[in-house]
Amino acid sequence: MAKQNQFSFLTSAALLVIIVSVSETLCRPLEEEHLLKQHEEWMAIHGRVYKDAVEKAKRYEIFKENVKRINAFNNGKDVGYKLAVNKFADLTNEEFRASYTGYKRRPTRVLSSGEKKPFKYANFTAIPAALDWRTKKAVTPVKDQGNCGSCWAFSAVAAMEGITMIKKGKLVPLSVQELVDCDDNDDGCMGGLMDSAFEFIVSNGGLTTEANYPYQGIDGTCNTAKTANQAASITGYQDVPANNEKALLQAVANQPVSVAIEGGGYNFQFYSSGVFTGSCGTDIDHAVTAVGYGKTSGSGGTKYWLMKNSWGTGWGEKGYMRIQKDVSSKAGLCGLATEASYPTA
Ligand SMILES: *[C@@H]1O[C@H](CO)[C@@H](O)[C@H](O)[C@H]1NC(C)=O
């Protein structure tokens, strides 16, 4: 009897080992098959076509790593926001950073017409508890910069569209391409900054409409026939006092504000929803537009800034990001309080 028991124990143990090893070898190809299928589906959704099998295999490996990393993040500790396998999923973070950002830090030189007047909203106190400039019809639909480092132009234009609506009562999508092609203060798809764009807009007598001079996403020659037909203008611009989220709040309470930010990080690349709480540094390389702020509901609500981005509506919350406000670092999360500015009109 004892012998028989021992025999059946050994048999079950052996069987278990066999089952485990079989399921292990079965699981791996299944996961691979699933990921291959997911990549094909993703390619179809995003209209991605690769030039050859070598490129496809290379992109698949990157896609796979991203999917695994995104899933691990989403299944991990809840930090208030989620990532998604979005249109950037076949790019490494280095490739993404090189192609989809484009903010150049402010040079130390003094810009010729850079306003040195005191911060005009310094004494403003009628600050609402929450604000969304979209509900006040001061924000145009989300645009997509594509594979061009023109974030600076989208940010400047969004802030200008906002102040134009506030001052003139009309919301008109303005031309980003005009800045990309004509603004010699900046480098088109190679990058730029909002302050020098505002400066160009003043000297240019304004900007024409998006409809008249539509976005192409490539550096082109300035079409002067089109720029003769300006639809809106600004009188200048001001910098929000640096490293001061309270000053930024005073500005955003009055108008949409251009914000420089470190947007090239991995979690920024794949952000999909919730209040972004990191991770990022303050090495500002991207530009967005602050179009509001608020606090999530519940007792331990998180305060956030509402940022309009220019990566299309498929990124983030329909093209927007909510990002943590009033963090301990004076620079703001991802450096958002370091180089903010707004046009005056
Ligand atoms: C804010 O108030 C102070 C004190 O009254 C005043 O000196 C300053 O000029 C005001 N700033 C602005 C921008 O109005």
Tags for this entry?
345 residues, Helix Hairpins, 9 helices, binds 2-acetamido-2-deoxy-beta-D-glucopyranose
Summarize the structure.
This protein has 345 residues and is an alpha+beta fold. It is 37% helix and 13% strand. The chain has two domains: 68 residues, Helix Hairpins, CATH 1.10.287; 252 residues, Cysteine proteinases (Cathepsin B, Chain A, Alpha-Beta Complex), CATH 3.90.70.10.
Tell me the domain tally: 2
First-last Cα distance = 96 Å
**Helix fraction by DSSP (H/I, runs of at least 4):** 25-40%
Biggest beta sheet summary? 7 strands, mixed
Bulk shape: globular
Work out the strand percent: 5-15%
E-strand count:
9
CATH arch. level architecture of the largest domain: Alpha-Beta Complex
Family: Belongs to the peptidase C1 family.
GO molecular function, one term: cysteine-type endopeptidase activity
Domain Peptidase C1A papain C-terminal: 127-344
InterPro entries: Papain-like_cys_pep_sf (IPR038765), Pept_asp_AS (IPR025661), Pept_cys_AS (IPR000169), Pept_his_AS (IPR025660), Peptidase_C1A (IPR013128), Peptidase_C1A_C (IPR000668), Peptidase_C1A_papain-like (IPR039417), Prot_inhib_I29 (IPR013201)
Can you give a write-up of this model?
- The protein is α+β, with helices and mostly antiparallel strands.
- The chain has 9 helices and 9 strands.
- A hairpin with a 7-residue loop joins strand 6 and strand 7 (about 305-310).
- Helix 4 crosses helix 6 (about 195-205).
- 2-acetamido-2-deoxy-beta-D-glucopyranose binds near residues 118, 120, 122 and 123.
- InterPro entries: Papain-like_cys_pep_sf, Pept_asp_AS, Pept_cys_AS, Pept_his_AS, Peptidase_C1A, Peptidase_C1A_C, Peptidase_C1A_papain-like, Prot_inhib_I29.
- Keywords: Disulfide bond, Hydrolase, Protease, Signal, Thiol protease, Zymogen.
- Belongs to the peptidase C1 family.
